[in-house]
TrEMBL record:
The keyword Glycosyltransferase applies. CDD domains: NAPRTase_A (cd01570). Its EC number is 6.3.4.21. Pfam families: NAPRTase (PF04095), NAPRTase_C (PF17956), NAPRTase_N (PF17767). Residues 352-455 form the Nicotinate phosphoribosyltransferase C-terminal domain. SUPFAM superfamilies: Nicotinate/Quinolinate PRTase C-terminal domain-like, Nicotinate/Quinolinate PRTase N-terminal domain-like. Residues 9-130 form the Nicotinate phosphoribosyltransferase N-terminal domain. It comes from Christiangramia salexigens. Transiently phosphorylated on a His residue during the reaction cycle. Phosphorylation strongly increases the affinity for substrates and increases the rate of nicotinate D-ribonucleotide production. Dephosphorylation regenerates the low-affinity form of the enzyme, leading to product release. This is Nicotinate phosphoribosyltransferase. Belongs to the NAPRTase family. Pathway: Cofactor biosynthesis; NAD(+) biosynthesis; nicotinate D-ribonucleotide from nicotinate: step 1/1. The lineage of its organism: Bacteria, Pseudomonadati, Bacteroidota, Flavobacteriia, Flavobacteriales.
Length: 469
């Protein structure tokens, strides 16, 4: 399905790549870390999403003839274009598992490749992982408050252009049950769901006929939208009449949908009307600018809503425009590399690394990940990245390595999981996270530490840099 070619990148990647190519650095190994700095939604965790799409796209990424012709018009040299003609990603990627809970400032994924290949994939990697992780995190927050209710993604029409395609996939990883998005349903094997639009009801001279014809035309999973004229005086009574007619044909109305007004009040009153008519099986769906806060409030008001349709706030990751994920160089030219910054959080971690999740003997997550050198297996003590006196003995905890080799020599190594499996894994990992990290107000801050060896390596690079200026 993915139709990306290697021009899905920023021009500066190609400008840098051409210099590496001309100066004989094209076979230099580089290591880049993908990490992010700030948790979205002022939350306590994020859900990693987008990995399988990324791996599939990277393993197939090539420059087409047309791409090369275009790049020629942009002033790139013939010998470099000739090199790009043969381009394919031959590197190795180590990554956290898709669906895992992830935290800021520690590598979520590591790319080891020749510097040109590693650089060219930066943009698509950030584009895919930042967006899906943002939306999966939003979806997961909505799932946390929604309990057992059905959650449907209605966001395609409000998504930033084609982003809705990947947003739907991420929503499923975060815990949604279905989508109205037909192309995502088809390509990702996601259950399709849906109701009817106001236009359908409006297009008839009366609401009852509209409901009747819809129910006759599509009796399976029929949901009637009851708020076009007057929910309690017209919509619900007409839906009840049609439900009764359906019963006579041996069919069942699945649900009614509320899309405006006070959803708690209308759901309660509609429930009463349906129950009094002997239609306790007819469910109530609600939509209209829902998010985790509105759904939480509706459920606290004991609104009898069984199905929530969420669009805009889910697929745009409202109110956060983007996850601030970055791709930073940790190794090149046979040496560790560092980026120094006035802002401490922007100072990078050099070297190839491994990240461990610390767990107690019962397998419970203690609320900390530690970053070590790639070959470290057990870390005695972890250090706060920038406060040298903050240390913690960790040798007694289990160390679960998080970065696994997922792609080598351009070939994807991990078996493809369906979205249900990824979502189940995600729910399991989220369940392992203590609840303090999942509350919306002032969640506990998950600790990220570094090993002594990594800290010494980093401090040495900082010192050398200071001495050199
Ligand atoms: N009982 C409720 N508690 C909390 N939030 C609610 C409740 N009912 C609706 N909302 C939310 O309040 C927001 C605004 O609802 P509002 O009633 O202003 O819009 P509307 O129904 O579209 O307006 P209109 O009735 O003019 O069409 C929406 O996000 C909606 O989901
Ligand atoms: O509010 P959101 O979370 O974005 O959920 C999606 C919204 O999109 C639809 O409205 P729209 O007015 O586009 O079409 P409709 O006529 O079917 O209501 C639907 O009725 C929801 O209100
Ligand atoms: O099926 C629905 O009810 C639906 C689909 C997209 C957007 N809003 C509602």
């Amino acid at each position: 399905m993915h139709n990306f070619t290697a021009t899905y990148t920023d021009q500066y990647q190609l400008a840098m790549a051409q210099v590496y190519f001309k100066n004989g650095q094209k076979d230099n190994t580089a290591i880049f870390d993908y990490s992010f700095r700030k948790l979205p939604f002022n939350g306590g965790y994020a859900i990693f999403s987008g990995l399988e799409d990324l791996l599939e796209i990277i393993s197939e990424l090539r420059f087409s003839e047309k791409d090369l012709e275009f790049l020629k018009t942009q002033g790139f040299d013939n010998d470099f274009l000739q090199y790009l003609k043969e381009f394919r990603f031959r590197g190795t990627i180590y990554s956290s598992a898709e669906g895992d809970v992830i935290f800021p400032t520690r590598p979520v994924l590591q790319v080891e490749a020749n510097i040109i290949e590693a650089q060219i994939i930066e943009t698509i990697l950030l584009n895919l992982l930042n967006f899906q992780t943002l939306v999966a995190t939003k979806a997961s927050r909505i799932r946390l408050v929604a309990g057992e209710s059905q959650l449907l993604d209605f966001g395609l029409r409000r998504a930033q252009a084609t982003g809705g395609y990947f947003a739907t996939r991420a929503a499923l990883i975060g815990g949604f049950n279905g989508t109205s998005n037909v192309i995502a349903g088809k390509n990702f094997d996601i259950p399709l769901s849906g109701t009817m639009a106001h236009s359908f009801v409006q297009s008839y001279d009366d609401e009852l006929t509209a409901f009747r014809e819809f129910a006759e035309g599509r009796p399976e999973k029929c949901v009637l939208l009851v708020d076009t004229y007057n929910t309690l005086k017209s919509g619900v009574p007409n839906a009840i009449r049609v439900a009764k007619e359906m019963e006579e044909r041996g069919e069942q109305l699945l649900a009614i949908r509320l899309d405006s007004g006070d959803l708690a009040y209308l759901a309660r009153e509609s429930r009463k009307l349906l129950d009094d008519a002997g239609l306790a099986y007819v469910k109530i769906a609600a939509s209209n600018q829902l998010d985790e806060y509105v759904i939480k409030s509706l459920l606290e008001q004991e609104a009898p809503i069984d199905i929530f349709g969420v669009g805009t706030n889910l697929v745009t990751g409202d109110p956060d425009g983007a996850l601030d994920g970055v791709y930073k160089l940790a190794w090149a030219g046979g040496k560790p590399r560092i980026k120094i910054s006035e802002s401490i959080i922007k100072i990078t971690l050099p070297h190839k690394k491994q990240v461990f999740r610390l767990k107690d003997d019962n397998g419970n997550c203690i609320g900390a990940d530690v970053v070590g050198m790639f070959n470290e297996e057990k870390i005695e003590e972890m250090y706060h990245p920038f406060e040298p006196y903050k240390t913690m003995k960790i040798s007694s905890y289990l160390h679960e390595p998080l970065l696994k080799k997922v792609l080598e020599d351009g070939e994807v190594l991990i078996p493809k999981r369906n979205l249900k499996e990824i979502a189940e894994y995600s729910a399991k990992r989220l369940a392992e996270l203590p609840k303090e990290y999942k509350r919306f107000n002032n969640p506990h801050i998950y600790k990220i530490g570094i090993s002594k060896e990594l800290k010494e390596e980093r401090d040495l690079l900082i010192k050398n840099f200071k001495n050199s200026i």
